[in-house]
């Protein structure tokens, strides 16, 4: 009774929500799985799950999320996240007729879940952390969360604390399982092997670090850290990729005039010869090459309000130890996982960056950090396999 009242109040409160755009691709023939990623944190895992279901099991996939995952798979379709109203839920389910509905993280969409339950479409929560209503939909909805949790065929939680959070919110034990965190698609960036081999030979035994996606506000901190670290390793090379290419001329002049350093620019087809202290690269190009060459990487943006601007898993996948600032930007969940595994070094200012860089110039220290990060980047395959088995079992049991 309380659940019905809570759902009614929720739907009444959101009845003025405008309808989503109705431009929907044609539904393909055959079974279809609807996957929903409620935030950028869950999109990589949902994307990886979609690929596995499409490639290994021949299923049609619909992904809904706020941003387009830009997949080049014929069996995977995408639509922007629809508004959660009874009319929108009916329209989406009428058009797509999914055989199963899969939500991530724990975000609950009351109108959609209620309509799917009425139609006897099984629903599943994956990578579940804690039950929450959609952002901006807080309110007094008596019994709503408890009732919605009862509509799930299974709730696949990432760990014990997540299970306890769902149990406290009213989920039944038979529906709860701990599967662990699903894997993300590989973050390994490509590079031209011949070029990597040639540059590695040119650099020989020189210590190297990489400043990736460096915003103007952090240039002084990186220059300070490089100056300090060169006192420990005078042959140290900084590979610097500025966030804004327009900053390159000013950077070159500043470092030449104030530091007296020799600068080489990739755009001018110059090489990081033995007398070069800083090698400036084109923004957003050849990151796979620099991560392979540099045992240590500082991810730009973390000391600014915008936050870290590069996916930490890119560096982790290629064995570069990670330094980053306190503001995670869009990579909060990723950096949180890495921090839990003691797989990154957090720096808050130029002084801490200088100290941390000096410590990581010791090969054993940087290797230990990089190994821990690589382990985080490569885990989750077993959890994904378990999630896929639950999905396939539910599909087989569905008339």
From TrEMBL:
Subcellular location per the Swiss-Prot or TrEMBL entry: Cell membrane
The 3-deoxy-D-manno-octulosonic-acid transferase N-terminal domain covers which part of the protein?
27-181
InterPro entries on file: Glycos_transf_N, Glycos_transf_N_sf, Kdotransferase
UniProt-listed Enzyme Commission number(s): 2.4.99.12
Record-level Gene Ontology MF annotations: Kdo transferase activity
Q: In which pathway does it act?
A: Bacterial outer membrane biogenesis; LPS core biosynthesis
What the record says about family reads: Belongs to the glycosyltransferase group 1 family.
Protein name, entry field = 3-deoxy-D-manno-octulosonic acid transferase
Q: What is the phylogenetic placement of the source species in the record?
A: Bacteria, Pseudomonadati, Pseudomonadota, Alphaproteobacteria, Rhodobacterales
């Amino acid at each position: 009774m309380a659940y019905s009242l809570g759902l009614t109040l929720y739907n009444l409160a959101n009845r003025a929500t405008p309808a989503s755009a109705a431009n929907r691709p044609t539904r393909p023939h055959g079974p279809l799985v609807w996957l929903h990623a409620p935030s950028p944190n869950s999109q990589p895992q949902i994307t990886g799950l979609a690929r596995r279901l499409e490639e290994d099991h021949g299923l049609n996939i619909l992904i809904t999320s706020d941003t387009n995952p830009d997949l080049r798979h014929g069996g995977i379709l995408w639509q922007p996240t629809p508004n959660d109203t009874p009319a929108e839920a009916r329209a989406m389910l009428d058009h797509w007729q999914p055989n199963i509905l899969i939500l991530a993280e724990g975000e609950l969409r009351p109108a959609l879940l209620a309509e799917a339950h009425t139609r006897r479409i099984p629903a599943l929560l994956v990578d579940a952390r804690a039950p929450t209503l959609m952002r901006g939909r807080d309110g007094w909805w008596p019994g709503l969360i408890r009732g919605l949790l009862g509509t799930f065929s299974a709730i696949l939680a990432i760990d014990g604390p997540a299970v306890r959070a769902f149990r406290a919110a009213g989920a039944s034990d038979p529906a709860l399982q701990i599967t662990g965190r699903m894997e993300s698609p590989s973050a390994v960036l490509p590079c031209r092997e011949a070029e990597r081999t040639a540059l590695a030979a040119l650099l020989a035994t020189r210590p190297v670090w990489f400043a990736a996606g460096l915003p103007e506000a952090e240039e002084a901190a990186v220059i300070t850290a490089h100056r300090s670290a060169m006192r420990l390793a005078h042959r140290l090379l900084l590979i610097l990729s500025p966030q804004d290419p327009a900053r390159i001329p000013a950077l070159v002049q500043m470092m030449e005039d104030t530091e007296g350093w020799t600068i080489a620019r990739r755009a001018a087809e110059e090489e990081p010869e033995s007398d070069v202290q800083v090698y400036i690269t084109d923004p957003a190009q050849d990151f796979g090459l620099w991560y392979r060459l540099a045992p240590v990487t500082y991810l730009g943006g973390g000391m600014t309000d915008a936050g870290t601007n590069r996916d930490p898993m890119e560096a982790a996948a290629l064995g570069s130890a990670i330094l980053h600032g306190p503001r995670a930007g869009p990579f909060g969940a990723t950096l949180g996982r890495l921090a839990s595994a003691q797989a990154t070094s957090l720096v808050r200012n130029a002084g801490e960056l200088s100290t941390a860089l000096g410590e990581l110039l010791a090969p054993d220290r940087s290797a230990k950090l990089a190994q821990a990060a690589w382990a985080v980047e490569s885990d989750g395959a077993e959890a994904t396999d378990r999630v896929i088995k639950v999905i396939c079992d539910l599909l087989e049991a569905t008339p």
